[in-house]
Amino acid sequence: MKWLYYTVLLLACCRMSGCGSDKDSVSVLPSDPPAPEEPEYVDPTAGFREVGPYGSMEDMIPDEHPDSEFSQCYYNYFCLCNKSSHTLTVAVSSKWKNICGFLRPETKYTDNFGQEVFGTYRDGPIESFDDIRSIRVIYDKNVSDDPIEADFFHTVSERYLFPSEDDFAGTIGDENEWIFEKFTDRRLRWVYIFTDEDYDRAKAMYDERMANYGSGEK
């Protein structure tokens, strides 16, 4: 009978230790997949030589003023890059300031619509073209001394006035054609990269104006 005694004892030990039960198999939950890495930032203005009098946005950042108890400062940078084979003069006007630059091919011009807000004295960041009043471009002619009063009719040029009900889609007057970057709540940048397509569009408009002008239209 000893064999029966030892068999019963063995079964009892196995039951106590969990032999033959589901406790022998340990389930391991799959680990969470690693978080996707943030894409490396690529500066859209890289490769263009800065010609603005105050340098690039990075050069101007140290001069930004911190917020005070009574006011907030917003820095709206506009960077115009010339990837075309033509020279161009560009002027962008907001409610309070004009910026203007002359660009040779492969150069860029950066300036800042800095705005200090006292209560409701001024609007803050320019996150749409609601605060832009006009954008003017003249090709192959340096009129940076006075681009507002330049002769746009007899030159290869573009001029967009805001607000407007005209369709500016596909042009520099369309904010969707710009690269909008928001770095902080107080610092943002609008970037436009000119190509020969911009010139071809302006040249077609100029040719149409001259043809209509020659036929007696005004």
Task: Looking at this protein, list some descriptive labels.
single chain; 218 residues; five-stranded mixed beta sheet; four-stranded antiparallel beta sheet; disordered N terminus; Lipoprotein
Any chance you could write out the topology, listing elements then pairs?
Layout: H1 2-17, E1 49-50, H2 57-60, E2 72-82, E3 88-94, E4 98-103, E5 107-117, E6 132-139, E7 157-161, E8 179-182, E9 187-194, H3 196-214
Describe the protein in words:
This protein is α+β, with helices and mostly antiparallel strands. It has one domain. Helix content is about 20%, strand content about 30%. The protein has 3 helices and 9 strands; from the N terminus they run αβαββββββββα. The chain has helices at about 1-15, 55-60, 195-215, and strands spanning about 50, 70-80, 90-95, 100-105, 105-115, 130-140, 155-160, 180, 185-195. The strands form 2 sheets. A 5-stranded mixed sheet has the order 1-5-2-9-8. It has a 4-stranded antiparallel sheet with strand order 4-3-6-7. A hairpin with a 4-residue loop joins β8 (about 180) and β9 (about 185-195). The radius of gyration is 32 Å and the shape is globular. The chain starts with a helix and ends with a helix.
The parts where pLDDT drops under 50 for at least 5 residues are 1-9
Quaternary organisation of the protein chains: single chain
Domains counted in the coordinates: how many?
1
Bin the helical content: 10-25%
How would you characterize the largest beta sheet? 5 strands, mixed
Overall geometric form: globular
Tally the beta strands: 9
| Ends apart, CA distance between termini | 124 Å
Strand order of the largest sheet: 1-5-2-9-8
